[in-house]
Amino acid sequence: MELAETFGVLQRNFFSPLTMAFVLGMIATLVKSDIEFPEPVYKFIAIYLMFAIGLNGGVELSNTTLSEFLFPALATIFLAVALPTLCYFVLRGLARFDVSNAAGVAALYGSVSSVTFAASLSLVEAAGIGFEGFIPTLSALAEWGIVVALFWGRLGLRTRDDALGKVIRETLTGRSVILLMGGLIIGVTIGEPGFERIAVVFSQGSEGLFRGVLVLFLLEMGMVAARQLRDFANVGPFMLGFGVLMPMVMGLLGGTLGALSGMSLGGSFILAAIAASASYIDAPAAVRSALPRANPSIYLTSALGITLPFNLLLGLPILFIYIQWLCGLLGSPVLPPNPA
């Protein structure tokens, strides 16, 4: 790729409404502005975004055959096991973290960030390319990374087996999985004819509310991330490197497996973004419940204060450039833009 194209990707991502709203939120907190989202409003926005992503994906999935979905699903399941396992043993071996903190960080990095996921959809749309309709299903499958990370924690702490069953139950009934999979099932059931009746509210296209709500969500996330940056001293230089390098390693692996499994350019990039992201909405709740000794200032500061800003500003564009090169090498398909 030419240098001009590289700068074009970086510029398009930085000056998008999503990224600029995120930066504004960080600035507002750092200058001690009194901007604040009421908790019920924040929860409503998060619920709306996850349900809308699942619903749109379900509509697209209604036209997808099982043969197209099988290999990408297997690749995602592999990532859900491998990525949190890699994080756990890197933190245990190199950083000498105790079991609780290593498993707590691994749970966040083994899960999926809804903001990073939605930002990757926006970047693909801005590039004028499409992606497979089963992408939200892959995101839901990737959430199993939480269970894998907590399994390593329980194994290290010699926790009783019945506790693992409780965590699995809580993960399956967690907000993100229920909304993504529930929206997906509804979307498959109603198809395009049924979706047309509610598109004005849930469509990810220019005529729907989705993009505007997402901008507000990024504003809130920017404020939360800036508050976590104040705890950076508790994270240390190692976690700075971890929060930047680990997402890139995971994203490169995820995108490579996506392309090798036959996914399109857009789909492979979104799978890379899923692999590179770190959850800070649902996973922390599971960690607090299962690993009460894990320090929130470590796993939240890393995910929110380091990995999220890095992914939005540089990580996603870098992954997009890599996936463009790889898919060109493999001759992967480039799908037309998804219908609004």
Strand content: under 5%
> What is the overall pLDDT average?
84
Distance between the termini: 29 Å
Q: What is the strand tally?
A: 0
Helix/strand-derived category reads mainly alpha
CATH architecture: Up-down Bundle
- Strand and helix order: HHHHHHHHHHHHHHHH
Largest sheet: none
CATH class: Mainly Alpha
What is the global morphology? globular
Assembly annotation: single chain
How many structural units, i.e. domains? 1
Q: Spans of 5+ residues with little confidence (pLDDT < 50)?
A: none
Q: In percent, how helical is the residue content?
A: over 70%
Supply Rg. Answer: 19 Å
Annotated CATH topology:
Na+/H+ antiporter like fold
The total of helices stands at 16
Q: Explain this structure to me?
A:
The chain has helices at about 5-15, 15-30, 40-60, 65-95, 100-110, 115-125, 135-140, 145-155, 160-170, 175-195, 200, 210-230, 235-260, 265-275, 285-290, 295-330. It is an all-alpha fold and about 350 residues long. The protein is globular, with a radius of gyration of 19 Å.
